[in-house]
Fold this protein.
Amino acid sequence: MLEQKGNLFILSGPSGVGKGTVLDALLKDYNDICYSISTTTREPRKGEVDGEDYFFASEDEFKSLVKKDEFLEWAKVHNNYYGTPKKYVDKTLEAGQDVILEIDIQGAKQVRDKFDGGIFIFLAPPSLKELESRINKRGTETKDAIATRLENANKELEEKKNYDYLVVNDQVEDAIKKIEAIIIAERCRL
């Protein structure tokens, strides 16, 4: 078999669309792709583990990493910072392993500007009403935070035109099948 560099897949979409749910299910069934863990300054949600779900950092620690250019992308989203560690991604891709990022719209723009050859997948909700319902079901947001997220989501949906693929997350199982098909197709691309 020909030795080749891995592919970088970017899964992005509005907050609450189900990126984490889809990615978790995808990784359970599709174990030959690596998930790149993000660094964040937000507080851990119930059940999240440092080094598994995110690398949790103080704002000062995060800003120090930004100054050292340690992130492939980073952004301030909903008053917290998020970033993708560059070294991990580069090392994994060079070893021929595919990597998938689960990032917001701002981060995807940075990756597009900095990284040549990324494969961008936009995960969209079936409707804004359904998105609001999903965010409410989380039970982790205040009414003001939900309103901000929905306002941002409306703007973020306009960005789908800048992606390679659009997957509507109406049923998690169907969304996973579509993303698996994208991964297989991209691995076969010459």
Notes: The chain has one domain: 8-188. The chain has seven helices and nine strands.
